[in-house]
Amino acid sequence: MFFNKIKSMRSLKTIPRVLLLVLMGISATKGDVIARVVKFEGNVFIKRLGMSTFSDQVKVGDAIVNGDAIKVGESSFAAVIYIDDRSVIKIKENSKFSFMDSKNTRTIDLVHGTLLNKINTDKRKKAFRIQTPVSVASIKGTEFAAIVSQKGTEEFVCKEGSFEVLNMISGQTVKVNAGQKAFSNATGDLVQAVASPKDYPSDPEFKSDFNEFENFNIEEEAIEYLEEETINKIAEPEKITPENSAEIEFEKLKTKKEIDSEVVESLEVEKTEKQTKPEPPPKPFSMGLGIGSATVDGILYNQLAFRPEIYFMKVGVGLDLILYVDNEGNIKTEEWDIENDPSLLLDKILYIRYGRETDVFWAKYGSLEGVTFGYGGLLNNYSNMMEFPSVRRVGLNTGVNLGPVSSNFFIANFKDLSRGGTLSGLRLNYRVSKDFPLSFGINYITDGNMFSGFKDRDNDSYPDVFDDFPDSTNMWNDSDGDGIPDPHYGLDSSIWDIDADGNNIIDTDQDSILLKATPFSIKNNTAKTNGLSFDIGYPIVSSKLFTLKLYAEYNKLNFPGVKNIDSTFIRTDRSGSGITFPGIMSSIFGILNLSLEYRIINGSYIPQFFDQAYDLNRVVTSTLGGNTIIQTKDMAIFNDYNDDLNSSGLYGSGGLNLFNLVSISASYANMKSDTTELKSFASYLNLNTENIPKISSAMAYYQRNNDANPFDFENPTKNTIMGYRIGYELSKGVSLIWDFRQFYRDDGTGKIEPIQQTTIETSFNF
User: Fold this and answer.
1) Looking at the domain assignment, is residue 266 inside a domain?
2) What pLDDT, on the 0 to 100 scale, is given for residue 469?
3) CB 71 within 8 A of CB 47
4) Residues 511, 530: one domain?
5) Span 722-747, pLDDT tens digits
6) CA–CA dist 98, 93 (Å, integer)
7) What are the Cα distances from residue 674, in Å, to 56, 226, 751?
8) Buried b vs exposed e over 374-387: b needs ≥16 C-beta within 10 Å?
9) Is residue 14 very low, low, confident or very high in pLDDT (cuts 50, 70, 90)?
10) Same-domain pairing of 511 and 550
């Protein structure tokens, strides 16, 4: 027996047991410890309170804190004992549940799986219940099993005592006594029946029954197990002689410190820092099937998408194989014309990844999200997926970790390289040592050509957004929108529109006509930008309950001037810098993350210039007197304000994870000068839908930067983006996904119009 084995360790006197007990008591006070793990085998993981993933592999003696969750994998099991009343929960394979204690009630929230329970009555001070997706079992003191299948059926089997089951859909209640069972489902059905011995789940993992734990000393047994794991490394006591006595005493002291440290580490509950323990490996293969609609190049298509994902060792591959069908049943073949455009192969790869960001080498190719360098002064939360699937970008993010030195490199879109350049960056970071964790970072970000994001299908140098004939190399303007081109150079006069302004008067019979100006041409037009930054950071406090980090940044942006006599595009040479000091970053209980910065800006510097919406406002278009005006992001901001202004102000951000039910993050900046005040606001909301019936996903976001009033929701500007994603579960593995994005551009008349991208699809995951 396992526990007989660890009890034999009590004869060992080399460990100061009193000290160990004190340390365990100190650890327990760090959270509301309600139970401990007493047995396990295989893949058993804990999701700590405030965390989003099952990242902790359990150990015997591990503390269970109110709000924690446990997941037991295939061919695995575990047992947990409550500290106060010594009730025991045995968990069979493929189970997931969470602990929820209140002042008067103890609840097990069972998502799926099988629990074998023995609930004691002698010392119990709280009402005990099992909550499932559709039912609640109220226990008066008994031995019973709760079974929730992933198909949605629920079963409760009573071995001793009695309990009541409530179906939350219909409101029906039944009492279940020894030798009985109850069935419950999502349609409101609740049926009581006689239980046969085979209805009670078998317990092959345990060679004994619940009585094994009756006299189990929770704290001491946890300590004994931890002692054993370390002491096994110690050889049998050596004979002490004058020659070796000092050496042996030193080894004893060294071993004692190692054991003490191991005990404290193993019993700590809160995980406020980034998890380093491996998550359960993903399945080697999964397939997603999407059926719905999407807007591509302004045209609404029906879509059929196959999204296989393959994982092997550290390698993961995700494909995006989509067919677009119009309302007449025609397939959009341009997406598969690989023979004439081999680059289309890039669009079929959603991602290829290797390793994790904590590995010595890691890389991800394809979709990029949440790319941040340092403390985000230049590059913050960048994503190349904001216009997906209408615009498909293929990037790279990779890095190396070699001791105190780490690096990060990214390319936003390989397709842009053929059009003059793309957004890219490199970060190098150095940490002095583990004992003195002062870190230094240097970042370089550049956009080789801000115009490279313009699509030009016919290669006539006029981007599709301005080209009224994007598939014709010698036509581009149609002022009245009748499908007949305006007169312009290089076009056969026989196909000119004789009434190009659409006023029903032949143009030759008028003294003057008003036509669209020649569109902006990307030929010989290049707009670059680059940034350089330095940062330094030092963790002042690094405990499991509270962290506090002090940092500073110096950022510089440069926008080279552009003046082309053959183009209407002219950009003044600009540059600026920004200093962040002090910057404070803190984490409290792993639930609340806060940061506060004081910023000083000189000249044409824009904090977080390369942000999530960069690809949307990288180039902004407007009209003036019939002419198309092209502005890069810096021009759109500083042409309206003094680009030599010096300003200062505060930037703050916060993130809150409420019991792993909802995650909320927001940031706000207020920069003031003598004549100008610019504000920025961004927010993000995400619901954990694991415990929300029928909802498979729910998130929303809003961002509006460098604006006079980011909270003027009725009057959005070109700096505004918003969106949401909602998934409704039709049945197990089948969800209806609604993905909506909205941003704003000039409509060609000087007015702001919303650009909406909506994708509706039925997703099948198996």
Assistant:
1) no
2) 86
3) yes
4) no
5) 989 898 888 776 778 888 888 887 66
6) 15
7) 53, 64, 30
8) bbbbbbbbbbbbbb
9) very low
10) no
Q: Please give the Cα distance from 313 to 79 (Å, whole number).
A: 30
pLDDT above 90 for 20: no
Claim to verify: residue 361 and residue 350 sit in the same structural domain: no
Looking at mean pLDDT, say which of 73-77, 233-237, 598-602, 672-676 comes out highest. 598-602
Same domain flag for 190 and 42: yes
Q: Kindly state the average pLDDT of the residues 151-180.
A: 87
Tell me if 577 sits within 8 A of 555, measured CB to CB.
yes
Q: Is the dihedral of CA 644, 451, 701, 297 positive or negative?
A: positive
Q: Which of 102, 107, 62 is nearest to 81 (CA)?
A: 62
**Is it the case that residue 582 has pLDDT exceeding 80?**
yes
Comparing CA positions, the residue from 17, 63, 12, 13 lying closest to residue 37 is 63
Q: How far apart are CA 319 and CA 311, in angstroms?
A: 12
Structural contact between residues 163 and 146, judged by C-beta atoms closer than 8 angstroms: no
Q: Copy the structure tokens of residue 157.
A: 């089997």
Does any domain span residue 20?
no
Identify the band that residue 241 occupies on the pLDDT scale cut at 50, 70 and 90: very low
What's 164's domain CATH number? 2.60.120.1440
Q: Count the neighbouring beta carbons within 10 Å of the beta carbon of residue 108.
A: 22
- Whether residue 477 is predicted with pLDDT greater than 60 in this model: the reply is yes
Q: Which residue has the higher pLDDT, 440 or 304?
A: 440
Contact by Cβ (8 Å): 114, 146? yes
Together in a domain, 160 and 288: no
DSSP result, 607-669: TT-B-TTHHHHSEEEEEETTEEEEEEHHHHHHTTS-TT-EEEEEEEEEEEEETTTEEEEEEEE
Q: Coil, helix or strand for 255?
A: helix
**534 and 565 assigned to the same domain:** yes
Task: Give the H or E element holding residue 296.
Answer: strand 285-296
* DSSP letter for each residue of 324-372: EE-TTS-B-GGGG-TTT-TTHHHHTEEEEEES-TTSSEEEEEE----B-
**Which of 534, 513, 611, 527 has its CA nearest to residue 577?**
534
Please tell me whether residues 643 and 580 are part of one structural domain: yes
What is residue 627's predicted lDDT score, i.e. its pLDDT?
A: 64
Q: Is residue 390 part of a domain?
A: yes
Q: For residue 489, what are the domain limits? A: 478-515
- Give the strand pairing for 695-707 and 677-687: antiparallel
* SS3 state of residue 72: strand
Question: Per residue in 353-389, pLDDT tens?
Answer: 999 888 899 999 999 988 999 999 999 989 998 877 7
pLDDT on residue 577: 94
Instruction: Give the closest residue to 68 by CA, choosing from 24, 23, 103, 101.
Output: 101
**pLDDT number for residue 523:** 80
Q: Note whether residue 26 is domain-resident.
A: no
Whether residue 85 is found in the same domain as residue 115: yes
pLDDT bracket for residue 297 (50, 70, 90): low
Q: 515, 542, 563 — which closes off a domain?
A: 515
% the chain with pLDDT above 90: 21
Between the alpha carbon of residue 705 and those of residues 191, 681, 765, the distances in Å are 57, 6, 37
Mean pLDDT value of segment 681-697: 84
Q: How many domains are there within the chain?
A: 4
- For the record, the structure tokens of 437 come out as 């964790």
Domain boundary among the residues 199, 216, 233 is at: 216
